[in-house]
Amino acid sequence: MNSPGPGLISSLLDTDLYKLLMARWVLRHHPEVEVEFALVNRTRRVRLAEQLDLDALRQELERFRTLRFSAEEVAALASLRIGGQEVFPTPFLEQLQQLRLPPFELWVEDGQLRLSFRGPWAAALLWEVPALALITELRSRAVLRRLPDAERQQLFGAARTRLHAKLERLAALQGLRLVDFGTRRRFSGAWQEQALLAARQRLGSALLGTSNLQWALRHGLPPIGTHAHELPMVLGALAGSDGELAEAPYRVLQQWQELYGPPLDIVLPDAYGTETFLHRAPAWVARWGGLRLDSGDPQALGEAVIAWWLAHGEDPSAKTLIFSDGLDVEAIERLHHQFAGRVRLCFGWGTLLSNDYRGLHPDDALAPLSLVCKAISANGRPTVKLSDSGGKTLGPAAEVTRYQRVFAAGREAQSSCRTPNRPAPASAQGRPPGTDLQGRSEGAQGSTGVAW
C-alpha cells in the first residue's frame, strides 16, 4: 500500500496541550486501561454524514494515523517549561514516540456520522482533537466548493469583519485575560491560525496564549491547558463500587497533583455536577490555584465557587476562575463585568473565535455544530457524564440514573480522599536555571507555559 500524501493536519502537535498532559498522567497511573472514544453530534437536527465527503474523511484519518513526532517536535516538547516545571521529561517523550494511534471505525447511521477509536488510553486519547478538527474542516470545504469564487471571497471578508469587530469590543475590557480554545471545532486550521494572530495583534498581552501546541510553538505563544472530563469519566467507569465512584473525581485530582504543580492545578468540577463536587470536595482541593467552569449557568456557578473558596478560608482574588462554555463576546462582557477584580478572571474562547460563520451562508450551512468526541467506555465498562447542562449528559440511561443517585447521595458526606503530595513551585532560590520567577524560559520562543 502506498503511503498517503500530506493531509489537512500535518503534525501531531496540531492538538491541544492538555492531551499530552493527560497522556503523561495516563501512562503514569493507568497504562493498562483500554478506552473507546466516539463522536457525538449534539446538534441532532443536522444530518452530518450528508454534509461532507466520507471518502475524503476516511483518507484524512488514515493519513493522520501515519504521523509520528519528529525529532524537532520532541525537542520542542522537551524544552517546554510551565510554572518552572519540566512537564514532558525524557522518559515520557520516549513513551510518547512509541505510541501508535489505534484503528478507527467509520460508518453512517440514520444520516449521522459514526466514528470511534478503541485502544490503550494514552494512544486513543490522541485522536479526539484532530478527528473533530478534520470533520469540521471537511464540512466547511464541502460548502465552499458549491460557491463561486466571488461568493467565497465575500464570505471570508464578512467573517474577517465580524472577527475584528469582536476583537474591538474585547479590547475595551480592562484587565481582560483570554486564551484561544478553538482547535476542536475550527472552520479550518488556516482560519484558526489567522484568528489567533488577529487576536494577538489587537489584544496584545490580554491574549495569554493558545491551547494549540503547534500554533504556540510556531508563533512564540504560551501553550495553555490542564485536563478534561475524560479523566473522572474513565475512573468512574473503572470504580468497583458506588463508594469508589463517588471518590473518582477527587482521585483524579489527587493523582494529578502528585504529578504536576502550579499553574496546572486547575479544577474541572462538572463531570458529575459542580455543586455536588464542591460540597463533597476535601479541603485540600480548595487550595488549588483555580477552577474552570464548562457547563451550567456561569454567573450562578461563578458565585458558588467564590462562596466555596471563602468558606474554606481562601482568598478568591488570588484564585483563577476560567469560563469556557460556548463563549462569545456578549457572554465574555457580561461575565467580565460581574467577576473582574474579584478573581483572577480568564476566558477560554473556542468555537466562536475559530469558526463563527453563522448567518453568512444563505441557508446557514456553515453554522458551527456542537460536536464532541468523548470516552464512552473503559475496559468495556460504560462511562457517564452528568454535567451541569442537561444537553451534555452522556451514557446509558440505567448508568446515568445510578450516577445521579450516587452523586445526589454524595452531598451528605465529604470525600475522604487524602491530601496528595504536591510538586513544589519554582521559587526565586530554587527555580530551574534559565527561568524567570514565573517559570518562563529566558529568551526561549515557543517553549514557555504561562501562569494562569
What report would you give on this structure?
The protein has 452 residues and is α/β, with parallel strands linked by helices. The chain contains 17 helices and 13 strands. The protein has a 6-stranded parallel beta sheet. It has a 5-stranded antiparallel beta sheet with strand order 4-5-1-12-13. Helix 7 packs parallel to helix 8 and helix 12 packs parallel to helix 14. The protein starts with 16 loop residues before the first helix and ends in a 43-residue tail after the last helix. About 5% of the residues have low confidence.
What is the topology?
Elements: H1 17-29, E1 34-41, H2 54-65, H3 71-79, E2 81-82, E3 85-86, H4 90-98, E4 104-109, E5 112-120, H5 121-124, H6 128-145, H7 149-171, E6 178-180, H8 189-203, E7 207-210, H9 213-219, H10 230-238, H11 242-259, E8 266-267, H12 274-280, H13 283-286, E9 290-293, H14 298-311, E10 320-323, H15 329-339, E11 344-349, H16 351-354, E12 371-378, E13 381-382, H17 397-409
Parallel strand pairs: 6-7, 6-11, 8-9, 9-10, 10-11
Antiparallel strand pairs: 1-5, 1-12, 2-3, 4-5, 12-13
Helix pairs in contact: 2-6, 7-8, 10-11, 12-14
How large is the count of helical segments? 17
**Class by helix and strand content?**
alpha/beta
Helical proportion, percent range: 40-55%
Please tell me how large the radius of gyration is. Answer: 21 Å
Instruction: Summarize the main sheet.
Output: 6 strands, parallel
